[in-house]
Amino acid sequence: MKPKLLFFLAVSAASWLSAAGQEFAWQAQLAPVTQQGFHRILLPPQVTGRLQPGLEDIRVMGPNGQPVPYVLRAEVPVQYRTLFKPYQILRYTRRPGGVSELLVHNPQKRSINNISLRIGNAEVRKPVSLSGSDDQQDWYVLKEQDVLYAIKNTRSTAEVKLLDFPLSNYRYFRLQLQDSLSAPLNILQAGYYDTYSEAGKYATIPIKAITRRDSAENHTTYLRLKFGQPVYPEQVALFISAPGLYHRPGQVIVGEQKRPERRRRKRRQARLEETSVPLLLSSNAPAVLDLPRQRVEELVIQIENGDNPPLSIDSVRVRQLNRYLVAALERGQAYTLRFGNEKAKAPEYDLQFFQDSIPAHAPVLQVQHLQSVSAPKTQKQTQSSKILVWAAIALLAIGLGFMTVRLLRDMEKK
């Protein structure tokens, strides 16, 4: 066996193994790109259900067949944001060499105990005092004296200073600044910081079939939801119309988990352990339950009715949090998603080190025309592939052994 032939066999085997490891069972087209720049590719449940839990086995392919770098982003169930809300500044009377006055309006008479001032950077110390009024005629002291200092921000041209005072609900607040020793401050805004919660965005998972059974024997309602494909449900919501008052416990079975037997010699079938989440339905709260993210093809909802009649359930919705691939796309080009490979590893792109440079609210691009590329390999096909791999390895070993013996004989002759 010639060395060139061995080399050819080794390269062919390596290429075949590499190609087999990069096969994807599904592909989908992306909607037309109408503008240049970063886009968020929204992954629907039909795509995420055919992916690994960490979405490692998905690629964005460009028109030339080359992969396009991307970063993963996902919604969170609830996130808290802090927003600066400005008050109306009625007037700011600047009196160099005297006392300047800033008049702030609180029209709703909110009960507040601080005012945040956004001030242009200035290396200065300013004594200030604060008073309140409901008619701008009679003023009442709130803070006799305070000091604004170290108004210096290295990242911006303005700095926010917080002025605390006793809780008050005056309609007007007057801030007096001592400008007898220096020029007035450049006060840009006066307001407060409000913290609010923002719910994450969800996508509805299509339900292929729903079956219901009300058992009179154990006073339990069983709802079986079949999706027709693997999915990752993260929230289930029930819409109940009757009765008006109810309080029912129950559980949601989100999957089955295999428990391997300790005695392998007997080769017993693995037992199935149901993974369930406690459920409590009450007329005083929305019937919404968050679920652990796990790939399943069906859900079973059990509701314990006790001695009460079963609930009238109009509909059931199952949702998952939105997940995106963020990539820089070119206008007018066609892009394709390829996915579905349990052995694929997550790609490593330089884009992950530039998350701050990617806009948070890029345009959303939809997925279209989902189709199967190749049928998933059966167990017999997998075994045949393994046999071919071992046969190639054995052939390589025999060839190397033959060459070694031949080289040793040549050395003895010399």
Structure in words:
The structure is a single chain. A hairpin with a 5-residue loop joins strand 6 (88-93) and strand 7. The longest helix is centred in the C-terminal third of the chain and has 35 residues, at 379-413. The two termini are 21 Å apart. This protein has helices spanning 3-21, 45-48, 379-413; strands at 26-30, 37-42, 58-61, 71-74, 78-86, 88-93, 99-105, 112-120, 126-133, 140-148, 158-168, 172-178, 187-199, 202-204, 209-215, 220-231, 235-242, 247-259, 271-282, 288-290, 296-304, 312-321, 323-329, 336-339, 364-365, 367-372. By secondary structure, the protein is mainly beta. It is flat. InterPro entries: DUF3999. Keywords: Membrane, Signal, Transmembrane, Transmembrane helix.
Keywords:
single chain; 414 residues; mainly beta; Jelly Rolls; 5-stranded antiparallel beta sheet; 47% strand
CATH-assigned fold name of the largest domain:
Jelly Rolls
Strand content: over 45%
Could you describe the largest sheet, including whether it forms a barrel? 5 strands, antiparallel
Instruction: Output mean pLDDT.
Output: 85
Chart the SSEs and their pairings.
Elements (H helix, E strand, L loop, with lengths): L2 H19 L4 E5 L6 E6 L2 H4 L9 E4 L9 E4 L3 E9 L1 E6 L5 E7 L6 E9 L5 E8 L6 E9 L9 E11 L3 E7 L8 E13 L2 E3 L4 E7 L4 E12 L3 E8 L4 E13 L11 E12 L5 E3 L5 E9 L7 E10 L1 E7 L6 E4 L24 E2 L1 E6 L6 H35 L1
Helix pairs in contact: 1-3
